[in-house]
Amino acid sequence: MQTVDIVKWIATIVQLVGYGLTGLNAAPWNVYAFIIGIALWFAVGVMWKDRAIMVVHVGAFISLTAGYLNS
Question: Which domain holds residue 51?
């Protein structure tokens, strides 16, 4: 298994944990999980040289951070 595959699966699991924590209303832990997942998925985008993945996760980070700061 390649490094990018490992990072991809860890990022996916962390994102799913974030969704679960959101469902349980476990703030701010859900936000922390999402930030980690976003960072890992951004890293996958860098490894694949896939700008679309990088852009969508920068947008997700900005949206999540803005929402967190406004709450």
Answer: 3-70
Pick from 61, 9, 69: which is nearest to 39 by CA?
Answer: 61
Burial of residue 67 (number of CB atoms within 10 Å: 0-12, 13-18, 19+): exposed
Q: Dihedral sign, CA of 55, 59, 60, 62?
A: positive
Q: pLDDT for 10-53, tens place per residue? A: 999 999 999 999 999 999 999 999 999 999 999 999 999 999 99
Give, as one character, the DSSP assignment of residue 31.
Answer: H
Total count of domains within the chain:
1
Give 46: exposed, middle or buried? Use CB within 10 Å, 0-12, 13-18, 19+. middle
Question: Hey, what amino acid is at 46?
Answer: V
